[in-house]
Amino acid sequence: MRNIARKVSFEDLVKAHKFYYGLKPREIPALKQIHEKISAFQDKIPLKNEEIEICLIRDEDFEIYCVDTGEFSLSFRPWREISNLVVSKGTLDHYKIADILCHYIYEITFYGPEENMEKKKKEFIEAIKEHQEEEIRKNKKK
Predict the structure, then answer these.
(1) Staple partner for 38: which of 5, 24, 27, 80, CB 3.0–4.6 Å?
(2) How far is CA 29 from CA 9, 23, 26, 65, 68, in A?
(3) Among 59, 55, 66, 58, which Cα is nearest to 106's?
(4) Average pLDDT along the chain, 142 residues, taken 10 residues at a time
(5) Helices marked H in the chain
(6) pTM of this prediction?
């Protein structure tokens, strides 16, 4: 993904983000920082044999792009790690590289900037624990 970020012009990335996600002018500086950050990551061999895949999920009411490795989500993973993953051939065959980068950035920033990921991750874990504890309490009453 890092190599794709290096090939995609910022102008093409902005166009893709406007088209798919309605990028607002106030969001452009943050997008530029993210694009530069991903492009600047040093080459590193991924620890896992994963490939980034994009698929379109369409329903009569909505359309979403799913970005993952076919096995794992990209959520709450260090950007340096996942930006070194390669993009699957199927994804490269079906999408323009600016669109791939656009969907990738949208996915990794869904919960906010990387600096906030650990906090969000802890919030999710706590919510899951609370839900599990509530389910255990309900089952004990039965």
Answers:
(1) 5
(2) 15, 11, 7, 23, 25
(3) 66
(4) 96 98 96 96 80 93 90 86 92 97 95 84 88 84 71
(5) 2-7, 10-21, 28-40, 79-82, 89-94, 97-108, 117-141
(6) 0.84
